Amino acid sequence: MTKTTVRALGLALLIGAMVPAGGVVAPTAGFAATIRNQAVGKAMKEAQDLAKAHRWREAIAKAREAEAVPGKSGSDAAVINQFIAYAAMQAGDYSTALATYDRMISAGQVDRTTGLKTAMQLALHMGNASRAMQYANQLGGDTGGVGKLAFASIYYQQGNYRQVIQMLRPGAESAGAEQLEMLRSAYYKVGDHDGAQFALELLVRQSPTPEHWRDLLRGLEQRPGLTDHQLLDIYRIKNGVGAMAGENDYTLLAKLALQFNVPNEALQVLSKAFKAKILTGDRSQRLMDVAAAAAAKDQAALPQTDARAAAAPDGEADIKLGEDYVAWNRPADAIRVIQRGIKKDKLKDPDEAKLRLGQAYLAAGNRGEAQHMFNSIARSSNQSPIARVWAMYSPRGQ
């Protein structure tokens, strides 16, 4: 995450570039007539006319002429400063606006709390973290609508990433995407990859864009000890959420499906890629032909495969067949044979069976049971990281 991106995260809480902040309001028509000093009033009338034409910088220059007039009253000086602050913000000149605010706060020309809040917002908008923190410290706990994301932005710009984590981690489960983006980045900056993964999982739940899914699944792909079968599960989700990167992803998914004897899945994936013109050429066509032949053979053998699996004592063949039935869009049969295999109570990896059963329920449209199966896999299990992402996917999958 770049500094520019992080600064942008806080801007939703801050002033808009064309909207007056804090206690500064647009000068009303005829305000210059209320000024007692005639020279000041004349200059401010011209400044107001320039502001009406949106000639903000010229309006500021004219107000500076009024500011230079000797013998002004305190109320006249306050009007000039209010105008300059307003025009500067309209012009996007936040440095001038902030300097003017400092003068108004010092002279008591604006409510102190309101002035400090606006000054803090301006400093943060300018990327001046240390100065924004000075205003925040003067405010104490009375920060009004400026939320913890804005303060976290200050700490982030200072490089105090652990303070960002301390501030944003509580309540992260119900936080918005902007807060989670910053939390994730702070974890990454301190080298806490588990923390970054935690924040990314929450981010995917909050904002399940293909980009966020791609980031999450990329992290899973890089886990030590990942099996090819688990990689197949990752790519199934990647395909389901629209996060496939191109030709290589589709080819890999198809080859993995063939490797684990779900040829109809391979055929569907390749057909999708050919239809979208992602895959072309003889090499991809040969893979398509292999998948089509394997799928035809597999489909013809399904009754015999089911009978052999039922007769097997350990249930392993039932679990494999259930995965194949899902690929053939026969979720009821998938649930039946997987449950049959689990009941034999001789599986090498009972957690994988739960994962396959969850996928079968998902294919059947029973998201509640799917979620239950994925969540029933213990955190200590080798299947847990895969089950967690399937649990995240299940509300939208199939």
In short:
This protein is mostly helical. The chain has 21 helices and no strands.
What does this molecule look like?
This protein is mostly helical and 398 residues long. It folds into two domains: 3-158, Serine Threonine Protein Phosphatase 5, Tetratricopeptide repeat (Alpha Horseshoe); 210-393, Serine Threonine Protein Phosphatase 5, Tetratricopeptide repeat (Alpha Horseshoe). 70% of the residues lie in helices and 0% in strands. The protein has helices at residues 3-9, 38-52, 56-67, 74-91, 94-107, 112-125, 129-139, 148-158, 161-168, 177-189, 193-206, 210-221, 228-240, 247-259, 263-275, 281-311, 316-327, 331-343, 350-363, 367-375, 384-393. Helix 6 runs antiparallel to helix 7.
Could you say which overall geometry the principal axes of the C-alpha atoms support? elongated
* Uncertain ranges: 1-23
What is the CATH topology of the largest domain? Answer: Serine Threonine Protein Phosphatase 5, Tetratricopeptide repeat
The helical percent reads 55-70%
Name the beta content range: under 5%
Major pleated sheet: none
Report the count of strand segments: 0
CATH homologous group name of the largest domain:
Tetratricopeptide repeat domain
The termini sit apart by 32 Å
The chain-level mean pLDDT equals 88
CATH class of the largest domain: Mainly Alpha
* Number of domain units: 2
